[in-house]
Design a protein that fits this description.
CATH class of the largest domain: Mainly Alpha
CATH topology of the largest domain: 434 Repressor (Amino-terminal Domain)
CATH superfamily of the largest domain: lambda repressor-like DNA-binding domains
Mean pLDDT: 88
Radius of gyration: 26 Å
Number of strands: 0
Shape: elongated
Number of domains: 2
């Protein structure tokens, strides 16, 4: 199998499976699909009623163009443009992590004031308060959870 046909097969598999890409990868993917199909930038531009330099810019920096334009380019290549939000961790995990950060900030201020009054609780009391505060903040997340101190 030639390198060109191997790349075509890999690209075809990736496209048909709808694998998500980072925004930085969209322009190069458009370029790869277009070249794998044997289409020039001028030919794609003509299909889209755009100029060839615009296609060149999209392939170099797709994140600078609108979603509507990306969708039109994808359609001109016989593909669909699917916007995907993805994350390495669940939303629940993000909320808990933020709740823990917020709880630590709250307890730091509270315990600092208590230390000034020589009433600093022990580690067990801190851990208990932290656990309860994290649960409380994470149970019903709202804008206050994301406010910076």
């Amino acid at each position: 199998m030639s390198p060109k046909s191997l790349k075509l097969k890999q690209l075809s598999t990736s496209i048909t499976e709808g694998k998500p890409l980072s925004i930085e990868g969209i322009g190069p993917r458009i370029h790869d699909v277009r070249t794998a199909m044997g289409m020039t930038q001028a030919q794609l531009a003509k299909k889209l009623k755009m100029s060839q330099p615009i296609i060149s810019r999209i392939e170099k920096n797709a994140e600078a163009c609108s979603l509507k334009t990306l969708s039109k380019v994808a359609q001109a290549l016989g593909c669909n443009f699917l916007g995907v939000l993805s994350s390495e961790i669940s939303l629940e995990e993000k909320i808990i992590a933020q709740a823990e950060k917020k709880a630590r900030d709250i307890l730091k201020r509270t315990f600092s004031n208590m230390a000034l009054e020589k009433q600093t609780p022990n580690q067990e009391a801190y851990d208990f308060q932290l656990k309860n505060l994290v649960e409380s903040l994470a149970k019903n997340p709202g804008p206050e959870l994301w406010e910076e101190a």
